[in-house]
Amino acid sequence: MKKLHLRSISSTLSSAFIYGMTLSLAFNAPLYAQTIQINEQSTPLDHLKAMPRPKFKQGTTLLLPLGQSNCGLHPDIHTELASNWGFGLEISDRKLDQVARANPGRYQLMVNQASIYRIYNNYKGDVVGLPVLPPNTWLRDKDGNIILRGKHQNPIVSPAAPDEAFKIIGDYLGQRISKFETNAGQPIKVILNEGESGLDLPASLGGRNMAQFLGQDAAVLADFNNSGFTGWYDYVSHNKARHESLIKEALFSQLQSRPVYSLFGSDQYGTERGRWGGWQNAMFLYEHFLNSSFKPLVSDYTASEMYYHFHNSGWSGIQTGNLVPYDALTQALNNISGAIRLGQRFAYPWVSMGWEGRKISTPEEFMGMMKAYYTAGAIGSVGGYFICNGPIWTALYHNRAIGTTTPTLIQQYAIQGHVHALFSHLEEYLRNGDLLPGPNLHPYKTSTQVLPAMELPAEGETQEVQVGNWSATMPTSRVLARKIRGEDRWLVIAWANVGDERNVRVRIDDKLGTQTLRARKAGTMYIFKIVNGQIQRTLIDIDPMNPTKNLSS
Prior knowledge:
The chain is an alpha/beta fold.
């Protein structure tokens, strides 16, 4: 989604200095310290360098480099993020492949592929340089004409489109990306596919009337009748996974190795699943994106969206028509819980603290949400920000003076980097631990889905919201915990998603019983151990906004 509105907010994260002697996830960072004075001539890069850098633990192997989904940054901001903040180096952007070649082994390389839709829209074959797909790639009406829609009269991809079409697309992308890889002189670590191209969501294919809309194409109707599926949602989901996996495999065949792959939005168990009656129209069924052994066919990890106040109510709230929590963490845990049921333990979500023209989270609360998401099983994230013109975008793209207010995007990427660094120290709790299901069921339910909530309710930490004659219950603090398998060690977060910092009481499990935790807006991370029958508790993030400040590299 690209949004073009502008608004500025004040920074609460910036500091007047940076810390030296830090280590990045990819390499040993330069050992230096410098003073950055923020003034009216300060650039976005100045603001980033004025913040305390996170400390990464050496030798982490599970976490993925952080990714970006935006309309462009200056190369110097890219390299600072990749050098010291845990981000991959976007070698497809502004000749950064040459930066990677000049610094062999220093960066983890990443490519973001965002323009696949142009290939599908080239149904006339009149765009020079783009591949031409087979005629039966697109949906046709009863008279055999390609169905066009929208003000741009774009074609609709057919669920019955032949394998050849997607192999052509994958070969084309692979050849392009292979050149970046060759220029950079080392393999790519992660490929991001921003999605929103190809076979569309069921809502755009007729929804509950898919039989009539898709069935007007005789080839599609025949393919459905021969598919063995009894429902159109399964049929469309199966073919979306087929299309995307063919693109991925053809693309990979052109590269030196097999990068981690993340397809935005399409490849998730579902943040919306079961929340409302029409949820199936808003997503593909994740089961079809796994093979018979529950191995992912497309994205290596579930790739759900978590944008602040975008298809959610932010960090708290309900949607009045359904009287269930509509906040971002409840949605994320729905996806996590369902994915765990299908054998998928980790996630690589696409996240945003907001952007100008929409609501923007406070830095503290975004920090708390990200700590909770990692505790739930995130091993990285892709940062989204959708301002594509105007003075803020110009400053970010050209690294021009922005003044004393830290840009939202710089705040967000710094927070993502800090949480990523924190969990480089806590990797064993992700790799060797399990998220505790909690005593309650998740509030989103379907006729076939009854999932654990994957969080622990704190005593008295709920708020009743009255809607007419009905009421709904919302949590006012969130507690999640992971336990190391076979050991008496736990990782626990307490987050004050509503209200000020305070103590909360929560029962963790039979061994730890009920504990009193300090819930902060930026989250509080604890490690619990039982040693010689005694419970030991350690606060990890003494400074909640600089959580690795007191940790050793």
